[in-house]
Amino acid sequence: MKSKNALTNISAAKATASIFGLLAGLGGLTHGVGEVLQGNVASEELWIYSWTQGPIATNMGGEPGITIIPNLLITGTLTLIVSLLVITWAVAFVQRKSGGWILTFLSIIMLLVGGGIGPPVMGILAGVAGSGIEAPSTWWLKHLPINIQKFIGTLWPWIFGIAVINGVFLVIGSLILVYFFDFNNPQLFTNSFFFAAISLLLMIFSGRAYDMQKRSDMSRTMMG
Asked: Which run of H or of E encompasses 49?
């Protein structure tokens, strides 16, 4: 009974924003470390590779990204700082007013200073999900039949569980595979990222329905 109540009390918006904001920040840290290790060298183009040697370079395509800072040491340092801010905000502050949009803003900065492509996109979508924390129901949900609303809401825990497994694999498992098993399949990691982006979009929609249904059930319980 307690586990069922615990699941019911979960805010889909907060859980999505916190977990995937955390994973986005961890992914950004990986980029930042590689850039710092390259040292005080100029980046001649907007497009950079965070790692130019080692398993990440050879087995994961070098972790590409963009930066508006023409120095890899500064780029990496800023990436580390912003990535830590993303982690801190996602874990501790995303439930605050406009917390989701601030997470999105931090993720955009992470994109511009060398945090790669995948982690910032994940953080941006996590922030969009977080914007739904305690937010009124969106118009499209209100205009859907109640049975369809409930069905969409029931999908969220399943999508969330699968997406978390994929996200942990993408951010943490991939590093374990390339460093300890010399695993070389960049296409698998690329597909994992695309799956993460699609599942986050699905979680944004299903999470709104889940939270809407939860609030409706709580209101009926209080009135009854």
From this structure: strand 47-49
**pTM score of the predicted model:** 0.90
- Residue ranges making up the domain that contains 197: 11-223
Answer whether residue 4 is part of any domain: no
Distance between CA 54 and CA 138 in Å, rounded?
Answer: 47
Give the tokens for residue 36.
């710092």
pLDDT one-digit tens code per residue, 70-121: 999 999 999 999 999 999 999 999 999 899 999 999 999 999 999 999 999 9
Residue 66 pairs in a beta bridge with: 47
Residue 79 CB partners (closer than 8 Å, separation 6+): 28, 29, 31, 32, 35, 110, 113, 114, 115
Cα–Cα dist 36/83, whole Å: 14
Question: Is the pLDDT score of 2 beyond 50?
Answer: no
CA angle 40, 44, 45 (to 5 degrees): 125
- Does residue 166 sit in helix, strand or coil? helix
In a domain, 5, yes or no: no
Split into its structural domains, the chain has a count of: 1
Cβ–Cβ < 8 Å for 156, 210: yes
In a domain, 61, yes or no: yes
Which value, to the nearest 10 degrees, does the dihedral of the CA atoms of residues 69, 70, 75, 76 take? 170
Confidence of residue 142 (pLDDT cuts 50, 70, 90): low
Residue 10: predicted pLDDT:
76
Whether residue 43 lies inside any domain: the answer is: yes
